[in-house]
Design goal:
six-stranded antiparallel beta barrel, 2 domains, 14 strands, alpha+beta, about 35% strand
């Protein structure tokens, strides 16, 4: 066991560099709470997963992710692939723009307040999702703690990733531009959708597999989702037209979209999506690969601070 019980993993470029600028203030507050820790900065995509796995293997009982939802996902994957995962707790100081995972957990969005929150050392076990998908012809797998899905939202993520990024442009601008561009040319997809062994075929806009309640920076896509109920909330947006989608879109922020006649909600342990056409897959806001894909729940698999 290391002398210092926590490992803090900082993604300095998260939030378009906001994390790096806020780190001195976060550091001071962690130390004001007498939290002993070792520090690592990430240098590239996937680095947080490597650091977290090594830290958990070395016996760190508390690993804190400082960054956005993507950083949190990477750190969670590192812990979950360690042989010491059951002895390791995830903490989050969110400095990104989405903050969707912590909205369900209850961690404060303000980084300084989050430091005080984590110092309480309260812990609880949450369920974790596992998505299996294809990338470059190879089958891959990845854990997700908030949500995963395929369809329109994943194509928006794919389009956003292809856009040039400038430090003086907020994250919202490329996302909105990608959303409008994707919507203009998007066609609903025909899929074979299997939910706990029951298969149906139909056209869908999106299939969202939620563990938490929020996606896309505050959209309440799964208003009744619980992080530790042993179920995934499967939100299927069926064959809705573009104008109808635009009219109904504001309802997703209150969660009232669930009552729309072309939206289905199921609780499930296993979901399979096999499309007739190409469909990208994303998880916790990050583009992963393509369908066919399966989504499974692993109950009470990860300890998190709250």
């Amino acid at each position: 066991m290391p002398e210092k019980y926590a490992k803090v993993i900082v993604n300095p470029v998260a939030g378009r560099g906001v994390t790096g600028r806020k780190w001195p203030l976060i550091k001071a507050q962690l130390e004001a709470n007498s939290l002993g820790y070792d520090l690592r900065f990430t240098s590239e995509k996937g680095h947080a997963t490597q650091i977290a796995r090594e830290a958990a293997d070395q016996g760190y009982s508390f690993i804190i992710a400082v960054g956005g939802d993507g950083t949190v996902n990477e750190v969670a994957n590192g812990i979950l692939t360690s042989h010491n995962r059951k002895q390791t707790t995830l903490g989050v100081i969110n400095t990104g723009t989405g903050s969707d995972y912590i909205r369900t957990v209850g961690t404060p969005r303000d980084p300084v307040a989050a430091c005080d929150f984590l110092a309480r050392k309260d812990r609880f076990l949450i369920d974790v999702g596992l998505v299996e998908y294809f990338k470059d012809g190879n089958r891959k797998r990845r854990f997700f703690i908030n949500y995963a899905g395929t369809g329109f939202d994943s194509e928006v993520a794919e389009a956003t990733n292809r856009m040039s990024k400038f430090s003086f442009v907020s994250n919202t601008v490329p996302y909105v531009l990608s959303l409008l561009r994707t919507l203009a040319g998007y066609k609903n997809k025909t899929v074979n959708l299997t939910i706990d062994g029951d298969t149906r075929t139909g056209r869908v806009l999106s299939v969202i597999i939620a563990n938490g309640r929020y996606v896309g920076g505050g959209m309440k896509v799964a208003p009744s989702a619980e992080l530790c109920d042993g179920k995934l909330d499967v939100v299927t947006i069926n064959d809705v037209g573009k104008l109808e989608l635009l009219r109904a879109f504001p309802r997703i922020y209150s969660g009232s979209h669930i009552t729309h006649p072309k939206v289905d909600l199921h609780l499930a342990c296993h979901v399979g999506v096999e499309p007739v056409e190409r469909m990208p897959v994303s998880a916790d806001g990050e583009l992963l690969g393509e369908c066919p894909a399966t989504f499974d729940i692993i109950p009470q698999a990860l300890a998190v601070a709250r």
